[in-house]
Design brief:
Blueprint: H1 3-6, H2 31-43, H3 61-64
Length: 82
């Protein structure tokens, strides 16, 4: 993924601020489909596999997604091509 596409400075030039906000990406699906999607995101240099949490059972999703004041949520649904 090109940083130029988003107008971002090169990775080595980015400053990390202690007050930096985060965006939470939630992936819900069948275990194999989730693992395949994470692997594909890694191949696109979107994320590192080890940066994802351990797999959580559905009952723990609410605990993992506590929101901060003012946050919103958007969900992207993409069909898997098998």
């Amino acid at each position: 993924m090109s940083d130029k596409l988003f107008g971002l400075p090169p990775a080595g030039d980015r400053l990390i601020s202690p007050a930096r906000r985060s965006v939470k990406i939630l992936m819900i699906g069948q275990p194999n489909d989730v693992e395949i999607t994470i692997a594909r995101l890694y191949q696109c240099d979107f994320c590192r596999v080890e940066d994802w949490s351990r797999p959580l059972p559905f009952s723990q999703i609410q605990q993992a997604t506590t929101k901060e004041p003012g946050e919103i949520m958007r969900i992207y649904v993409r069909s898997m091509t098998l």
